[in-house]
Amino acid sequence: MTGPERAMIRAEGLAKTFVLHTQGGAEIPVFRNVSLTVHAGEVVALHGPSGAGKSTLLRTLYANYRPDAGRVMVRHGEAEDDWVDLASAPPRAALALRRRTLGHVSQFLRVIPRVPTLDVVAEPLVALGEEVGAARARAGALLSRLNIPERLWPLAPATFSGGEQQRVNVARGFVAPRPILLLDEPTASLDLANRDIVVALIAEACAAGAALVGIFHDPAVREALDARLFTLTARDTCS
Ligand SMILES: Nc1ncnc2c1ncn2[C@@H]1O[C@H](COP(=O)(O)OP(=O)(O)OP(=O)(O)O)[C@@H](O)[C@H]1O
User: Which terms are listed as keywords in the entry (predicted)?
Assistant: First the structure.
């Protein structure tokens, strides 16, 4: 079953306060009691003023940050009751979940140095057991679509421009079809033509039944994706 009625990721009562141990234990409360459900075939845009906690929430959904309270329930598997709490899952379970179920496109590319771009993009498919040649073919098709010229494919992306690195990152995020995708400003460094290509990729994943949560500062992107806004306000923050 796909469609807006099938919940895919469910944040329940999340709270996060940063404690700066190197600065006298100063506390930075970011949010509390945040609950959010995202369904298959839906795009949710995290919204709110700078500093409201959008990036922190997205990273908490990906288990880069551990919340102080609450759960991040992720549908992992086909059975109706196959849910995992990513916030408390042991590292191996979290890795398996990220490989198959929960993709993430960060704003900046972080990859092992000297690996050719084509393999950087193909890697998530290979990790899922895809044959290397087929994975590279799919990676190449995505890189072409994202206007990364073929002469750059054998090179490591470390020296690429900001916009090129972002498109490599997007290609890596979309190469393996994953039912849930988290997107951190995936069009921030792109020109309009490439922005529209990324918007089309997101819309296609959504139409195929993925649940997407993202930060999109560009209102035109939110509109094009018909995104539901999830607003973080002072209400959600501790004072
Ligand atoms: N790793 C961290 N350590 C300590 N404080 C942090 C950390 N990350 C974020 N913060 C603090 O948490 C608050 C929320 O930051 P966050 O980056 O989530 O906001 P945002 O809504 O994404 O902002 P922007 O739109 O400006 O990117 C800020 O006050 C920030 O200083």
Answer: ATP-binding, Lyase, Nucleotide-binding
Are residues 119 and 92 both part of a single domain?
Answer: no
**Which residue is listed with tokens 């404690």?**
19
Q: Are residues 121 and 200 in the same domain?
A: no
What tokens does 21 get?
């141990």
Q: What is the pTM of this model?
A: 0.92
Backbone torsions φ then ψ of 77, nearest 5 degrees: 120, 175
Other Cβ atoms within 10 Å of 234 Cβ, number: 10
pLDDT in tens, 53-72: 999 999 999 999 999 999 99
Our mutation pick for probing the ligand 1 site, out of 19, 54, 60, 231, counting the most ligand atoms within 8 A of Cβ, is 54
Q: Is the CB of 16 under 6 A from ligand 1?
A: no
Total domain count for the chain?
A: 2
What one-character-per-residue DSSP string does 51-86 give?
TSSHHHHHHHHTTSS--SEEEEEEE-SSSTT-EEET
Chosen domain end from 154, 177, 200: 177
Q: How many residues does the chain have?
A: 239
